[in-house]
Each structure stands twice: as C-alpha cells, then as structure tokens.
Amino acid sequence: MTPLSPLSDLLDDAWSMLARGVDDPADDLHWPVLATVGQAGDGAPFADARTVVLRASDRDTGRVAVHSDADAGKIAQLRTNPSVALVAYHRPRRIQLRLHGVADLHVGDAVAAAAWTALPGHSRALYAGPERFCVIRLRILQLDWLHIGPERPLRAAFTLGDGPPQGRWIDP
Ligand SMILES: Cc1cc2nc3c(=O)[nH]c(=O)nc-3n(C[C@H](O)[C@H](O)[C@H](O)COP(=O)(O)O)c2cc1C
Fold first, then answer.
1. 154-159 and 95-107: which strand pairing?
2. pLDDT beyond 80 at 153
3. How confident is the model at residue 152 (pLDDT cuts 50, 70, 90)?
4. CA 70 and chain centroid, separation
5. What is the tens place of the pLDDT at every residue in 44-81?
6. Separation of alpha carbons 4 and 10, rounded Å
7. Which residue's CA is the closest to the ligand 1 atom numbered 4?
8. DSSP string, 42-106
9. Which terminus of the chain has a lower count of CB atoms within 10 Å, N or C?
10. How far apart are alpha carbons 168 and 155 in whole angstroms?
11. 7-170: what CATH class?
12. Which residues contact 41 (CB under 8 A, 6 or more apart)?
C-alpha cells in the first residue's frame, strides 16, 4: 500500500485482513479490543474495553461478530448503549484497523444457534451452555485504516451504510 493506492484498495485490504483475522489464531487481528460505553452507579458514562476473539466478518452486510457469555458485563452495557468500537493492530504490516458501529445482540435465537453449532468443542467449553451464549454482531458504520511506518502515516476512513461505502483520506 502506497500513498498512490486508490481508496478502494484500502477498503479491500481491510476486509481481507478481517477475514484472515477470523480464520487464523496466529494473526494479530484474531485478538482485537472491543470498546463499549459503561454506566457507573450514578449513571455517568465511562469508557470500557477488553480483548476478544474475532469470530466472523461479512463484507456484504458490513458486519463483524464476537462471542460472549450472555451474562457478561459488556452485554449489560450494550443493552443500555449499543455503541461499540473494535480496534486491532497488525504488527507485521504496521496497520491499525478501527471500526465504529452499533451492536446487535443474539441470545437464544437462530443466529446464536447457528454460531453455537459451528463452534468447536474447546470453544463451547468456555460457555456455561447454549442458553448463556451470545453473538455480538457489530454493524460497522465507520472503518478506519491506518498505516504507520518510517514514512508519513497513511490514513483513510470509510463510512459504511446502505449505499456504497464513502472513503476519504484523513490527516492526521
Ligand atoms: C486473549 C483473550 C481473548 C478473549 N476473548 C474473549 C471473547 O472472545 N469474548 C469474551 O467475551 N471475552 C473474551 N476475553 C475475556 C475479556 O477480555 C473480558 O475479560 C471478559 O469478556 C469480561 O469482560 P466484560 O466484563 O467487559 O464483559 C478474552 C480475553 C483474552 C485475554
């Protein structure tokens, strides 16, 4: 990727990085950080974040997915405020992907059942059972691609929605 790369190449690159991250536990993008908005006892919002495993990505629907225990703190947070960010750094390529979006929660429905069925036994063992298994689907509203190398940083942002993605260069 060079400063002359068309924006569309960077979006293609981001989606192929996400697909590889789902498939390859040795890939840095398999282990992103999911950020949510928490609520303190007095109702004040606070930023929260944790490492997760990237479980699915789907360019056609503009979504990625993460699994969680349905009783986890992040699920309670997301029920109150579905705003999310997912960030990962691919160290060999020096690329950060940052996704902003909205979370849809799936517990005890067809989406959760299909994901549970596809889950290998060692991953199922992490959960108390299918009734406590939640698929968090992130509908991506903005995707940010950033390369930081020895030369000037290269950054592009894409707005995803109903129409074709809109990309633009960002500095800084
Ligand atoms: C390498 C690693 C991978 C993790 N993957 C997940 C995951 O896919 N889903 C998940 O809910 N928690 C995962 N966790 C645990 C979370 O980071 C977090 O501790 C837990 O989900 C509770 O967070 P919460 O209280 O904000 O819900 C992972 C932790 C580590 C260190």
1. unpaired
2. yes
3. confident
4. 18
5. 999 999 999 999 999 999 999 999 999 999 999 999 99
6. 11
7. 52
8. TS-EEEEEEE----EEETTTTEEEEEEETTSHHHHHHHH--EEEEEEEETTTTEEEEEEEEEEEE
9. C
10. 9
11. mainly beta
12. none
- What distance in Å separates the CA atoms of residue 48 and residue 70, rounded to the nearest whole number? 17
Cβ(27)–Cβ(21) under 8 Å?
Answer: yes
What distance, in Å, lies between the first and last C-alpha atoms of the chain? 17
Percent of the chain with pLDDT over 90: 89
Say how many Å lie between the CA of residue 51 and the centre of ligand 1.
Answer: 5
**CB-based contact 144:169 (threshold 8 Å):** no
Mutation test of ligand 1: which of 27, 39, 48, 50 has the most ligand atoms closer than 8 Å to its C-beta?
Answer: 50
Ligand 1: distance of its center to the CA of 50 in Å? 6
Phi, psi (rounded to 5 degrees) for 109: -115, -170
DSSP 21: H
Whether 30 and 21 have beta carbons less than 8 Å apart is answered as: yes
Which burial class, exposed, middle or buried, applies to 168 when counting CB atoms under 10 A from its CB (0-12, 13-18, 19+)?
Answer: exposed
SS3 state of residue 111: helix
Instruction: Return the DSSP state at 118.
Output: H
Residue 126 — pLDDT band, cuts 50, 70, 90? Answer: very high
Q: Dihedral of CA 50/38/97/95: which sign?
A: negative
- Dist CA 48 CA 144 (whole Å): 20
